[in-house]
Amino acid sequence: MINIQNLSFSYTKGAELLKNVNLKIPKGIYLSILGENGSCKSTLVKLILGILKPDSGLITLDSNKISYVSQKLDNFNSEFPITVKEVLSCHAKTIGLKNPKSVHESLHKVNMCEFSSNLIGNLSGGQQQRIFIARALLGNPDLIILDEPSTGVDEKSQNEIYPLLQNLNADLGKTIISVEHNTKIALKYSTHILKIENGSLNLFTKENFTKYLESEESVSKII
Amino acid sequence: MFELGFMQNAFIAGFIVSVLCPFIGLFIVLRRYSMIGDTLSHSSFAGVAIGLVIGTNPLLTAFLFTSICALVIEALRTYYKKYAELVMSIVLTLSLGIAIILISSGKASAKVDSFLFGSILTVTTTDIWLIAIVGGICLITLLFLYNKLIYVTFDETSAKTAGINVKLVNYIFTLLVGATISLSIRVMGILVVSSIIVVPVATAMQLKKGFTTTLIFSIIFGFLDVMIGLVLSYYINSAPGGTIALTSVIFLLLTLTFTRFFNYEN
To answer: Is 0.90 topped by the overall pTM?
Structure first.
């Protein structure tokens, strides 16, 4: 589904963060991207989305129906005067959705219909994240990309968000790519894990990643 | 009062300003971009000074110069991403420098006061036409870009991924701010023009409603501020800009008291 060929990227000339990277991300998986702070997790996602342009190399996607849930909204705060319905309608109009029911249907998928008229700033972090996922579901995308969906969200809310993502992947067949900092969550909910380390990308199935972690642990014990 | 030609002109200009300023003001406030109001009003001061020196309609030169400054601000913002306020200070300094040199040269006529404080006596029919045409274009553009502006204001990154040309929207928006300010200075005055952009919005935000409802209330408050301010300035013989500014602050205080006293919630 996503084919990355010989990709190189740097923010400043001469300091390449990703160098000649190759990767194939198959369709229909739930991929968690793991790595240390500053390991280019969010950068990779922004390259896939086309927000950032690579220095060299190619990223090809076999669908243009992609949605994005960003980590932190630029001007958003609890005082921002906008209702849940307005947040979704705004996106629906932008992507050219004509069906007036689409907003309601999308909210229904995340069990947030009753909050349609609420100000988004009055909702909890977890509820807000579900609204942004509902927004991402508008237009029936094939691929949903999330940048650290659990940032600023308590454990209870995490337990609402991740099973929802898992269901979207398993039941509706959506490909999910989620930048994560929590290895436990990645192992619990995703089907695949992409480990970014020193600019290199390693794709694992969940099972292989568990083995990898076990071997890492045994190595560190020996050391 | 209403049979007087100059008052009719003032009310027509005031009506356009009262709709346009809070409309654009809501986006300015939510982008935390309030400083642009002050910066561009000083740019319009330089524009007025240029007009007075070369003997052209000062509103026209204010509009042209403020638009140029608006474009410069947007272009420089990409260079000073983390320090947007710095860009404002640079343009403000440039504008004030030009204005002070031109005014102090003695080549500008003595009408500067009416632009600084606003004047209901000096709104000419030519001004009305200019304000109506530019204001109409601004309003149509705002309505056309309404959805895109909300999206970019709320979540710029997602707006980009949803296919909005954010850069273009930002440039057009900054131009609209420049145009709105330059056509508002006749009534409001350069020194307090930003009050009609920001205060009605601050008042409407106290009601804690959705975006469109907040916009409608911003315009209603803006309309009341301008109309009451103009009537008062006629009767107490004061400059309209200051009177409108004070009226807007009184409305804000009343709303704050009302919402706190009744523990108003959405």
So the answer is: no
Asked if A11 has any chain B CB less than 8 Å from its own CB, the reply is no
Q: Which residues contact B249 (CB under 8 A, 6 or more apart)?
A: B195, B199
The Cα–Cα gap between B67 and B55 comes to: 20
Give the CA angle between residues A51, A190, A125 to the nearest 5°: 65
List, in order, residues 6 or more apart from B144 with CB less than 8 Å away: none
Question: How is residue B15 written in tokens?
Answer: 């009506």
C-alpha closest to that of B24 among B154, B177, B174, B136: B177
Does the pLDDT at position B248 exceed 90?
yes
Q: In what order do the strands lie in the sheet with A2-9?
A: A18-25, A2-9, A56-61
The beta-carbon neighbor of A94 closest among B147, B153, B213 is: B147
The class (CATH top level) of B5-195 is: mainly alpha
Could you say which of B151, B158, B211 has the minimum Cβ distance to residue A81?
A: B211
Asked if A133 and A144 touch (Cβ cutoff 8 Å), the reply is yes
User: A58 and chain B: CB distance < 8 Å anywhere?
Assistant: no
Q: Which value does ipTM take for this structure? A: 0.82
| For helices B193-205 and B5-30, angle between their N-to-C axes, nearest 10 degrees | 60
pLDDT digits (tens, 9 = 90+) for A98-143: 877 889 988 988 888 999 999 998 888 888 888 998 998 898 888 9
Amino acid identity of residue A36, one-letter, is E
Considering only CB atoms, which chain A residues are within 8 Å of B153?
Answer: 75
What CA–CA distance (Å, rounded) separates A17 from A39? 8
Structural contact between residues A194 and A201, judged by C-beta atoms closer than 8 angstroms: yes
Residues in B whose CB is inside 8 Å of some CB of A read 30-32, 147-148, 150-151, 153-164, 205, 208-214, 266
Please write the tens of the pLDDT for every residue from B203-223. 999 998 999 999 999 999 999
Q: In this model, does residue A184 exceed pLDDT 70? A: yes
